[in-house]
Specification:
mainly alpha, 9 helices, 188 residues, 80% helix, 0% strand, Tetracycline Repressor, domain 2
Length: 188
């Protein structure tokens, strides 16, 4: 049991630090210190810093998609309400005290060429979000669900960048209004 707790402790600290500071700026000494473990323990669990980053990304993706699916699919009412619920979840994320952008965008920025496996995980996460939006667009009765999913994902991704650039959670109001227009047009 203690091994699992230590591993989870390391993952939580690493996720927090990587989101806040990025990957290259976060050293193994800081990771171990923040997790309350030795570097040896960290390496015992993950093999390397890259191994830790890979596990953080996979864990982050799993938790993100579970929360998204759970909250959005449990939204009462129509398919378009479910699509718009995605925007409200992003508002909550942008409003959180620890919001510092998207860990997957950071991954692509820092590792796109030098660590293909990490970049693959980031791209895979973005693709999973696109597939989820496609499911919701079909549920909403969109005539071209792939096109609507791509448009909505573009709005969500752009809102991340603008929120991180200082526009704050209010930027989601603009994105959500545009989404409503796109959804209405796609249902015609």
């Amino acid at each position: 049991m203690e091994l699992i707790e230590k591993r989870d402790q390391i993952l939580a600290a690493a996720n927090r630090l990587f989101e806040m500071h990025g990957f290259h700026a976060t050293g193994v000494d800081l990771l171990a210190s923040e997790a309350g473990v030795t570097k040896r323990t960290l390496y015992k669990h993950f093999g390397s810093k890259e191994g830790l980053i890979e596990e953080v990304l996979r864990s982050h993706h799993t938790k993100m998609m579970e929360r998204l699916r759970s909250e959005v699919l449990n939204t009462p009412s129509t398919g378009d309400a479910k699509l718009l619920a995605c925007f409200e979840l992003y508002r909550d994320w942008f409003s959180s005290l620890n919001f510092s952008g998207c860990i997957f965008i950071k991954t692509l920025n820092e590792f796109n060429v030098c660590a293909p496996q990490l970049s693959f995980i980031a791209r895979e996460s973005k693709e999973a979000m696109g597939h989820f939006l496609f499911e919701l667009a079909e549920l909403a009765g969109a005539s071209e669900p792939r096109q609507l999913a791509d448009q909505l994902q573009l709005l969500l991704e752009g809102s991340i960048v603008l929120a991180q650039a200082g526009r704050g959670p209010e930027i989601i109001d603009t994105a959500k209004a545009m989404a409503q227009t796109l959804i209405t047009e796609a249902q015609s």
